[in-house]
Amino acid sequence: MIAQVVKHKVSMSIHLKPIVLLMAIFIFFWGCDYARMSEQESIRPYETSIPEMQEGTIPIKGGLQVLREMDTEDLTNPLPFNQTSFDLGKEAYGYFCVMCHGPKGDGNGTVGQSFYPLPANLMSSDVLDQADGELFYTISFGMGRMPPLAYTATEEDRWAIIHYIRSLARVSE
Ligand code: HEC
Prior knowledge:
This protein is mainly α. The protein has 9 helices and no strands. The chain folds into 2 domains: 36 residues; 109 residues, Cytochrome Bc1 Complex, Chain D, domain 2, CATH 1.10.760. Helix 5 crosses helix 9 and helix 8 crosses helix 9.
């Protein structure tokens, strides 16, 4: 009799095993409901596909590639030098340059000291003798250890910074 009960129990657990296994598999895949994940609001904007472009298409206005291929002589500062552009340049310099080139523009920024070569002294004639367009190009696309800032600072900020650097030099004269 006892043996019979034990046998019954054993056979029960054998029957249960596949059910438990099936449940485990079900719960596992229920957890990875990929279809529902793709329905989230957050990924929708990235799903829009841009229209197919013909091979060799390049932007004719505004694109960085256009700027990269320009002659620096054709680049002139579009901003007039006035209080507004000075203020903008000062603020932007504080965001994008001061840590390397220092508050006086002499290349003594705290982060900059770990660079080799050291950040340029922006008050030196090597820098100041360059035309605005050349400086704009270097600031935009970098040079050696100098990082390209076209991707971080807006075009307006970069031009205003040049006004600011020149006025710093006039003050330190
Ligand atoms: C991460 C540090 C760093 C930041 C941020 C940085 N610079 Fe520089 N910069 C350098 C270094 C380093 C050099 C020297 C590069 C070399 O000689 O290889 C340099 C060189 C220069 C030069 C000299 C180019 C030449 O023709 O000799 C100019 C101009 C300049 N930086 C302007 C700026 C301006 C303006 C900003 C802010 C918009 C800026 N830099 C932000 C590190 C930095």
